């Protein structure tokens, strides 16, 4: 038995949290066991690593190693066991974020990230990745109304356009796994696009 692994991606300010909650609720109403989790994070160890990655200065390789270390713990303790018992796992970011932020944003070598991906979660990949996409400038305006910025959120527009290009490249590599959602639209329309993607898959 293997459950579905669904991930949400997008630049900071894309509005993932709202839509993750809504999707989890919808799936629960249909009787699924849903495990909602996030990266970096999802276990005690990984949440501690998250604190370091978001707030301590470090170079791009250190950043990549820490997010993959967090991911290893998360996959082993939470994601793989949940999928094995047939639960649906909805995860706020996964390895596409590493390719987008450390690869695209920081310009770190994608072939090294691909090796780390292979070591850390071999052939475990999301069944569906909902990429909430919008221009960096619009995301920055949305973030300005939210909370204090962490190390990533305080990057400039050019950084976030590179992250966005990183997501586009990941989607081009495995298009069948991805759904690009136009997140520049209002909340209800974004939600309808997400529902349509699930329905298209008969979920
Ligand atoms: P985010 O998921 O946006 O959480 P919140 O909604 O609480 O702000 O924040 C996590 C940050 O970590 C985000 O800026 C992207 C970054 N990140 C990476 O750089 N690499 C990764 O592999 C992951 C999973 C996240």
Give a nutshell description of this structure.
This protein is of the alpha/beta class.
Helix count equals 8
Question: Any ligands, ions or cofactors bound here, and which?
Answer: thymidine-5'-diphosphate
User: What is the CATH homology-level superfamily?
Assistant: P-loop containing nucleotide triphosphate hydrolases
**Major sheet strand order:** 2-3-1-4-5
Helix/strand structural class:
alpha/beta
What is the global morphology?
globular
CATH C-level name: Alpha Beta
N-to-C series of helices and strands: EHEHHEHHEHHEH
Task: Set out the fold topology.
Blueprint (H helix, E strand, L loop, with lengths): L4 E5 L6 H14 L4 E5 L5 H12 L4 H25 L3 E5 L2 H11 L4 H12 L6 E6 L2 H9 L12 H17 L4 E5 L4 H14 L3
Parallel strand pairs: 1-3, 1-4, 2-3, 4-5
Helix pairs in contact: 2-3, 3-5, 4-5, 4-7
Bound molecules: thymidine-5'-diphosphate.
């Amino acid at each position: 038995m293997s459950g579905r692994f669904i991930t949400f991606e997008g630049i900071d300010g894309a509005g993932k949290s709202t839509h993750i909650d809504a999707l989890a609720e919808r799936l629960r109403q249909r009787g699924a066991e849903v495990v909602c989790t996030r990266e970096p994070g999802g276990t005690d160890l990984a949440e501690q690593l998250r604190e370091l990655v978001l707030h301590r200065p470090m170079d791009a390789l250190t950043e990549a190693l820490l997010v993959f270390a967090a991911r290893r713990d998360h996959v082993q303790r939470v994601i793989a066991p949940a999928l094995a018992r047939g639960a649906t796992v909805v995860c706020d970011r996964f390895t596409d974020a590493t390719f987008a932020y450390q690869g695209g944003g920081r310009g770190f070598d994608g072939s090294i990230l691909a090796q780390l991906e292979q070591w850390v979660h071999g052939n475990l990949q999301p069944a569906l990745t909902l990429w909430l996409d919008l221009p960096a400038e619009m995301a920055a305006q949305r973030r300005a109304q939210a909370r204090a910025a962490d190390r990533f959120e305080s990057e400039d527009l050019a950084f976030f356009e590179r992250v966005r290009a990183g997501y586009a490249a990941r989607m081009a590599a495995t298009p069948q796994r991805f759904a690009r959602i136009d997140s520049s639209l209002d909340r209800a329309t974004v939600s309808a696009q997400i529902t349509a993607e699930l329905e298209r898959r008969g979920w």
